[in-house]
Amino acid sequence: AQSVTQPDIHITVSEGASLELRCNYSYGATPYLFWYVQSPGQGLQLLLKYFSGDTLVQGIKGFEAEFKRSQSSFNLRKPSVHWSDAAEYFCAVGANAGNMLTFGGGTRLMVKP
Amino acid sequence: KAGVTQTPRYLIKTRGQQVTLSCSPISGHRSVSWYQQTPGQGLQFLFEYFSETQRNKGNFPGRFSGRQFSNSRSEMNVSTLELGDSALYLCASSPGQGGRTDTQYFGPGTRLTVL
Fold first, then answer.
1. Chain B positions in Cβ-Cβ contact with residue A32 (cut-off 8 Å)
2. DSSP state of A9
3. Which residues of B touch A45 (CB under 8 A)?
4. For B97, which residue in chain A has the nearest alpha carbon?
5. 3-state DSSP call for residue A84?
């Protein structure tokens, strides 16, 4: 069975600083990896995904993530954080058997002015 | 294209009652998945429907059930509600072709409170 770990429950960064959110997964085969963002009281918005190919993937809102098979990681990065990025971020892994995502526990991002 | 819609957005029920939540997927999408989100357990997969058939099921008791109609709209039902069923229920749709993982697009959720 697959699993996802997001080691950081809360992260606070200053506006304009760089950001890296960590995600480690456990899955026997090539994973399908996703990052979603959730604002309070809202659903999940897809930031980016990795299915295959180039291990550095670009997403919306200036986010990118790098798939590292040797480290079983899929960390999310942004070079300069904006106050509107404050939200909760979820990493998820999908198996090659339909649409059944396993999510990490989430990282809540706070942005200091 | 319109996004995923869920109704109602908020619901208050009492223990022992049952509830039905509805989800309309993005036009053309044939797969609908349901997730439960709680502060304690996080986001957990409930089930997936594709072409009116349950294709995957998570580890939830039989009180949780669902169905999908020929127009791909889906409903989930929870019977004999318990306090622990209070949660945000999220629906996600995807094209669903081929049986592999697709990109899922989520609705705004239904916030269920059980008193």
1. 100-101
2. S
3. 106
4. A98
5. helix
Q: How confident is the prediction along chain A (113 residues), in pLDDT tens digits per residue?
A: 789 999 999 999 999 999 999 999 998 777 899 999 999 888 999 999 998 888 999 999 999 999 999 999 999 999 999 999 999 999 999 876 778 899 999 999 999 99
Q: Does B107 touch chain A (CB under 8 A)?
A: yes
Distance (Å, rounded) from C-alpha B55 to C-alpha B90?
17
- Around Cβ B15, how many Cβ atoms within 10 Å? 11
With an 8 Å Cβ cutoff, are A99 and B58 in contact? no
Which pair of structure tokens corresponds to residue B1? 């294209």
What are the backbone dihedrals phi and psi of residue A55, each rounded to the nearest 5 degrees, phi first?
-80, -10
- Determine contact, residues A80/A61, Cβ cutoff 8 Å: no
Q: Does B13 touch chain A (CB under 8 A)?
A: no
* First CA to last CA distance, chain B: 37
